[in-house]
Design a protein that fits this description.
Elements lengths: L1 H8 L7 E6 L2 E6 L4 E2 L5 H5 L7 E2 L5 H9 L4 E2 H4 E7 L6 H25 L4 H12 E4 L2 E7 L2 E2 L8 E4 L8 E5 L9 H15 L4 H8 L3 H11 L5 H7 L22 H10 L27
Parallel strand pairs: 3-5, 7-11
Antiparallel strand pairs: 1-2, 1-4, 6-8, 8-9, 10-11
Helix pairs in contact: 5-6, 5-8, 5-9, 7-8
């Protein structure tokens, strides 16, 4: 049967050399010694680029199954074990509440932008959980192990995210400096990278632009990205995300004002789209090859 054939070939090519990024550049090494980065940009953001051997391609949906099943390549995010050591919160309770209101106000915009790339049910849950569970800290130290051995010479990074799994909720820390919301430029970059890791998408630049923009600028950015057509349906989806006794967590009134950095550069950074707004185009239907016909 097909199943028995698949089981018989699992791990059959673990000794075959594959091209990998290593500390010494590109090298062919046995497949079983290579890690595969399933999340775009995770090698650079996590600081392990060049520290552990990783497959030359990353985040290629069609490559993951054969790499892991036939070649025995392990997924980077699963193989590495991170151990965060966060410092204290630099914000008081009221400031943390202000931070969470700012994050919640971002959720409709971020979700609309993500819908341009994909439609996954978990995205809404991850964004809501991120806004509720992000912890600002004044210092963050991390160690990382691979197969029980500590990895040395890791690049420092100002955030840590562990996505929810099984009964474990999402865990997120960001080194926070300055005001609670909107965050200063350096903190905004850390939040954008943390969001990208939590969601598994490489939209750091887009997330950063939304964090540093006011509501009007966000709407224009959504127009440019072709995401405006998703706003209404997302607003309906989010009505049940929080209880009614909370203070309008997704309303425009709690949207943050632009950071000073955004005020100075908004005329150059945010382009003005056409005046007309139209719904996002419908998805392109997919057909099996045998269902296609040739016209003429």
């Amino acid at each position: 049967s097909g199943r028995s054939t698949s089981e018989g070939t699992d791990g059959a090519l673990t000794d075959v050399p594959l091209l990998a990024n290593t500390a010494n550049g590109l090298r062919f090494i046995p497949a079983a010694e290579i890690l595969y980065a399933a999340t775009p940009g995770i090698r650079e953001r996590s600081g392990v680029a060049g520290t552990v051997p990783t497959f030359i391609l990353e985040a290629e949906p069609g490559a993951r199954a054969p790499l892991t099943r036939l070649f025995g390549v392990r997924v980077l995010e699963d193989a590495l074990e991170w151990h965060p050591d966060p410092g204290e919160s630099p914000l008081d309770a009221d400031e943390v509440a202000e931070l969470r209101r700012g994050l919640r106000a971002l959720i409709p915009t971020l979700l609309a932008r993500i819908r341009v790339e994909r439609t996954e049910v978990r995205d809404k849950r991850v964004l809501v959980e991120f806004a509720d569970r992000l912890e600002p800290v004044d210092d963050l130290r991390m160690t990382c192990t691979l197969d029980g051995a500590n990895l040395d010479h890791l690049a420092a990074r100002p955030y840590f995210v562990r996505p929810s799994a099984h009964d474990e909720p999402l865990q997120a820390f960001v080194v926070w400096g300055g005001r609670p919301w909107p965050p200063v430029a350096e903190t905004a970059q850390a939040v954008a990278m943390a969001l990208a890791d939590a969601l598994g998408v490489n939209l750091v630049e887009a997330f950063l632009a939304f964090i540093q923009s006011n509501q009007g600028q966000r709407e224009r950015l959504l127009d440019i990205a072709g995401a405006s057509g998703f706003v209404a349906e997302i607003a309906d989806e989010l009505t049940d995300a929080y209880s009614d006794d909370e203070a309008a967590p997704f309303s425009e009134s709690v949207a943050p004002t632009p950071a000073p950095e955004a005020d100075k550069e908004s005329a150059e950074v945010v382009a003005r789209p056409p005046t007309s707004t139209s719904a996002a185009p419908p998805p392109v239907p997919l057909f099996r090859f045998e269902d296609l016909t040739i016209d003429g």
